[in-house]
Amino acid sequence: MKNNLPKICYWCGVNLPLNNTTKEHVPPFTFFPKGYRDNLMTVPSCSDHNNNLSYLDEKFQFFIKAFKTNEIAINDLNTRVKRGFERKEKQSFIKNLEENSRSGKINGKPHWFLPLEQNEAELFIEKILRGIYFYHKEKPAKGIIQSISKRIIYENGVNTIAGVDFLKEDLSPDILSKGDYNNPKVFKYQYLDFRDMFVVFMQFYDDVEFIGWKYPENFSFD
Predict the structure, then answer these.
(1) Which residue in 61, 82, 166, 199 could disulfide with 213, CB within 3.0 to 4.6 Å?
(2) pLDDT at 141
(3) Long-range contacts formed by 199-202: CB under 8 A, 24+ apart
(4) Any residues with CB less than 8 A from the CB of 158 and at least 6 apart, and which?
(5) How far apart are CA 35 and CA 121, in angstroms?
(6) d(CA 89, CA 96)
(7) Which residues make Cβ contacts (< 8 Å) with residue 144, sequence separation at least 6?
(8) 3-state secondary structure of 23
(9) Residues whose CB falls within 8 Å of the CB of residue 58, separated by 6 or more in sequence, listed in order
């Protein structure tokens, strides 16, 4: 892993002191159980962008592990994550899960769909994409950032399964670069960097897939 990245915040680009030790794990540290923390990716961060979205880290580690797509996710969900949510201050979150979760199928297999607030999924993936972008490009990402996943149900009726399949077919593995990761059973990724278009295919615990992309800086929908 790189250890000589520019001393600026990966998100906002603010200059950081040379002795700055504030770093953002990509993806968050909470995703990695003991035994799977070998040489994790980190990027320099200001204190605001290291802390302001920490609530998403905890929520999404539960959201993604709850799909139980491999033994690592299942074991950590049933031990460390479960203990964390048994705390008194987490009861409102558990109540929300009980009231709003619903079941469904992905590729014919039953899955549990968990409630998310508006734009939380997009913001979480944006956070990771910005970290990966900075790690490879050594500058903050500028431009519109979007994402999609078969695991997210959007209220506007977007067919996410068809969208993901279309992107995977259009961007074949032959044109993607392998990411820099050391714990593939927890997280791995491939990316495309072409004319300021940056696309990342992310996989958590083998089979929870998200696709995020950054449009060129001067792109707009107008």
Answers:
(1) 199
(2) 97
(3) 199/167, 199/171, 200/128, 200/129, 200/132, 200/133, 201/168, 201/171, 201/176, 202/27, 202/125, 202/128
(4) 148
(5) 27
(6) 13
(7) 214, 215, 219, 220, 221
(8) strand
(9) 30, 84
The torsion angles phi and psi of 169, rounded to 5 degrees, stand at -75, -40
Place of tokens 């987490």: 90
- φ, ψ of residue 210 to 5 degrees: the values are -130, 145
In a 13 Å sphere around the CA of 22, the CA atoms on its Cβ side amount to 16
Q: In sequence order, which residues have a C-beta less than 8 Å from that of residue 93 and are 6 or more positions away? A: 59, 85
Tokens describing residue 105: 């199928």
Q: Give the torsion through C-alpha atoms of 180, 62, 120, 55, to 10 deg.
A: -90
Dihedral (CA of 135, 127, 50, 141) sign = positive
200's tokens:
């990342």
Residues 6+ apart with CB under 8 A from 115: 96, 97, 100, 101
How much is the CA Rg of the chain, to the nearest whole Å? Answer: 18
**Left if phi > 0, otherwise alpha if psi is -120 to 50, otherwise beta: which for 143?**
left
Q: What is the DSSP letter of 88?
A: G
Cα 5 from Cα 41, distance rounded (Å): 11
Encoded tokens for 73: 């996710």
pLDDT at 93 (0 to 100): 64
* Residue 6 structure tokens: 């520019």
pLDDT beneath 50: ranges in the chain: none
Give the three-class secondary structure for 14.
Answer: coil
What's the token pair of residue 137?
A: 């490009």
- In single-letter form, the type of residue at position 132 comes to I
